[in-house]
């Protein structure tokens, strides 16, 4: 019997589906090389001899074999930020939690399945090496059956097709901050001086940028009343940053300011550096970018002069698109945007500026239309160097107003609640999350995945599989493995023991209807009063995962906690991953 056309279609469709789920082998060789970044030479971790690392671009459903070979003169690991590691918790890349560090000269084979689509990132997860340049973008093309959100905003089919075409060609835009000191120099200086190192030296767009030294009068004119309130009688340093002696920020601990090296808080020498240029074709109507924060410390505000952006995905998941002019990216978050290419041909500044209170900093790229220029003047910014709006019309993205597409509702009740406080611990640069400080040496301990009692129990919380959990916390936090719902936030003390109790008193602070679905979330900075945040998640992927601040020096300073998810359904680890050293 001849198959009818519907059967034929199904057969072809199945073949395509089968062909789509490929095995992808991605070798990554890490080296430690002197390189000029932001116009200054320092040693940088290179990935396949480049900085930033090359893009891993795969299809949803692909099985990835990511083979890291460490040729650096120190131990490393690589984490896949936001990748849920369903059924592969041994490939999460966290030393002391899911693996032993990869020693010099050895290789490690990470294996995971790209279960979810969207924009992610791989990056170092050993000591402070994230700030030494080990990061690169990951893009997972959604399956054809995944519903795109563009028809919600396209005005006609032509425009819809242009949006879909732009998404198919989407490219990563890696945004980061940069220090002139290496991560180990920063750590050594923190230990010697006792201070928390919260300034950087440059911002980078796709690894390109420069050090600019703003004139003193300009710096002073950009100090907002909020910043002055924190500074008290002090002023910003010549790198436009808080000095190291602001007690309200550093806490009341002993400090040895003489042990602070040049450039850590002050010492500005301008450089030329490189500038990123994005060449676009107006005929395509839109360009799609996956804005990815690889920032070690500062929040970053991204905007393109005179252009709008349709934000259509956050942390690798679609949202109902929103039209904005500027986005404040917390550390390690990803925002996918469509930029309408509807302005006169010419060059427009792509601006990256500090969104953190403690420092005024910026870098500039160029959006360049192909063809004979029609614009013969400098483009106009949406945002001032201090993060304030430069025009009355500037629209900033408000994350708490974004709506996932499709909406997913979390459980109305939970099985466990953990209240985790964040505090300085014994020194300005040391921190607790929960009751204790997760010190850096624990990265060298036996991985918790292999031994659930390898580290002290006050650094661990335990959950059961297929239960719902609330984490009530403050400060920028990233939970490994599965995504979480952001169900509530606020300022002031959180004087309740559960969300159910709080919802009786302050229901307006919670959203259980269409909450954001994220893998990394931050709260309002807590300086004059505490702030709180509630994350709710379902345990579906047993394994040892880390909950930590994504400000690198805060994580190094102990602001982390191990979560043993699904202790009642603990995974059996493949023998190769149990070895004490590298596995290939
Ligand atoms: C970088 O250059 C400095 C100065 O020449 C040198 O001392 C250092 O060993 C170099 N580092 C690396 C990783 O090559
Ligand atoms: C590097 O990792 C190996 C394997 O876990 C460990 O034995 C060694 O102590 C580590 N080296 C350093 C300098 O931490
Ligand atoms: C589709 O909509 C765009 C934007 O509103 C408009 O510029 C264009 O002319 C429309 N195209 C058609 C074919 O209607
Ligand atoms: C700031 O300076 C004024 C005048 O010298 C002084 O009275 C005040 O105590 C100072 N404030 C702080 C926080 O040091
Ligand atoms: C803080 O440091 C600044 C810059 O080094 C200095 O001018 C100021 O006197 C210091 N303030 C205090 C209270 O030590
Ligand atoms: C930062 O902004 C200033 C003032 O607009 C500008 O002169 C400087 O070139 C910018 N820095 C970079 C690295 O783009
Ligand atoms: C910034 O926005 C506020 C509120 O809309 C407005 O009052 C102010 O004039 C804007 N600033 C500039 C420089 O346009
Ligand atoms: C963002 O939206 C939330 C919820 O609507 C609102 O409470 C908050 O004030 C908004 N934030 C800003 C900065 O406008
Ligand atoms: C806290 O600091 C003091 C003084 O530096 C030190 O003696 C003590 O061991 C530290 N405590 C911990 C738990 O690290
Ligand atoms: C697990 O770790 C604890 C604490 O270090 C240790 O006493 C115990 O022997 C370890 N168990 C195994 C099976 O290695
Ligand atoms: C912190 O200490 C409190 C009080 O002893 C305890 O109830 C809680 O479980 C501890 N939290 C963690 C994460 O260990
Ligand atoms: C854990 O729970 C999830 C959600 O119910 C389930 O899909 C998964 O199979 C469970 N895992 C194990 C190892 O039991």
Key phrases:
mainly beta, 31 strands, 12% helix, disordered N terminus, Cupredoxin, signal, Immunoglobulin-like, binds 2-acetamido-2-deoxy-beta-D-glucopyranose, five-stranded mixed beta sheet, 8 helices, 584 residues, 3 domains
Rg (C-alpha, Å): 24 Å
Q: How would the global form be characterised?
A: globular
DSSP summary: helix tally: 8
Q: What's the CATH H-level homologous superfamily of the largest domain?
A: Cupredoxins -  blue copper proteins
Mean pLDDT: 93
CATH topology of the largest domain: Immunoglobulin-like
Main sheet overview: 6 strands, mixed
- As for the number of domains, it is 3
Cross-sheet strand order for the largest sheet: 10-9-12-17-14-15
Q: In what range is the share of β-strand residues?
A: 25-35%
CATH architecture of the largest domain: Sandwich
Q: What's the CATH first level of the largest domain?
A: Mainly Beta
* Bound small-molecule species: 2-acetamido-2-deoxy-beta-D-glucopyranose
Percentage of residues in helical conformation:
10-25%
Which residue ranges are poorly predicted, with pLDDT under 50 across at least 5 consecutive positions? 1-19
InterPro entries: Cu-oxidase-like_N, Cu-oxidase_2nd, Cu-oxidase_C, Cu-oxidase_fam, Cu_oxidase_CS, Cu_oxidase_Cu_BS, Cupredoxin
Signal peptide: 1-21
GO biological process, one term: pigment metabolic process
Domain Plastocyanin-like: 31-143, 172-371, 460-565
